TrEMBL record:
The keyword Disulfide bond does not apply. Its cofactor is [4Fe-4S] cluster. Binds 1 [4Fe-4S] cluster. One of its GO terms (molecular function) is class I DNA-(apurinic or apyrimidinic site) endonuclease activity. Belongs to the Nth/MutY family. It catalyses: Hydrolyzes mismatched double-stranded DNA and polynucleotides, releasing free thymine; 2'-deoxyribonucleotide-(2'-deoxyribose 5'-phosphate)-2'-deoxyribonucleotide-DNA = a 3'-end 2'-deoxyribonucleotide-(2,3-dehydro-2,3-deoxyribose 5'-phosphate)-DNA + a 5'-end 5'-phospho-2'-deoxyribonucleoside-DNA + H(+). HAMAP family: Nth. DNA repair enzyme that has both DNA N-glycosylase activity and AP-lyase activity. The DNA N-glycosylase activity releases various damaged pyrimidines from DNA by cleaving the N-glycosidic bond, leaving an AP (apurinic/apyrimidinic) site. The AP-lyase activity cleaves the phosphodiester bond 3' to the AP site by a beta-elimination, leaving a 3'-terminal unsaturated sugar and a product with a terminal 5'-phosphate. It is an enzyme of class 4 (lyase). This is Endonuclease III.
Amino acid sequence: MGTPLASREAQATEVVDRLSAEYPDATISLNYTNRLELLVAVVLSAQCTDERVNEVTADLFETYTDAADYAAADEDELADDIYGITFHNNKAGYLKSMGETLVAEHDGEVPDTMAELTDLSGVGRKTANVVLQHGHDVVEGIVVDTHVQRLSRRLGLTTEETPERIEADLMDLVPESDWQQLTHLLISHGRATCDARNPDCEDCVLEDVCPSSKLDSDVDLASGEAW
């Protein structure tokens, strides 16, 4: 129990293979119909559940249909329209500023480069990666959210701590053809089995190769703390 494979490369391959079999339909869980809706949804999803975002955007996307709508919005009203989203006041400011930039610099369209996306308010590398992958079919990196950060450390794929360094480490470790799907697989497993506080190691398809297994280890490598 809990014995990782001899190399990180072999461990990563095993993780991808087993999780692919466990979650064959793993994909993004945010609802959207175009690139702008995707961008908005991902910005709103920071530190907020996808389920809650989908609830809020069901009405939001009927009211705000293009970048100009966000640019022209009253910020307080926009904040009310996304009430229930974590940090809704701050994110209303991001959405309005984002709309203004899209209208002024990109003819209202969502750009397709990392540099242009990360110049938008509220958009970091993680958000930009999601938009590139699912909006433009461009895979430049690996999306490292809280699930990916936790599981990649817990499974012994990396010892890095920050999302940026974890992404770089995983990009060197995992074949580029698996970059996009690795994120969805780790998120699916993090939600279903390997949660932050009480992972269900007894029902985990990776338990026998997981160096953090509660059945065989005293330490959670994700946090470096004792179980």
